[in-house]
Amino acid sequence: MSLTLSSSCSDPHELLYLILAVLIMEMYCMNGFIFMLYFFFTNLSFLSQCNGEK
Question: Where are the transmembrane segments (predicted)?
Fold first, then answer.
């Protein structure tokens, strides 16, 4: 399962929706913790790119 992130930061609620999606996934996925770590680290690079564009 791969998580695709858009390269634009135009929507401030986009990250909120992604976090909500992860929380929903954790309810159904026994590997929720591992998925959360993966999601967190991928978002660190995404957010650093986002801040660099401003």
Answer: 15-41
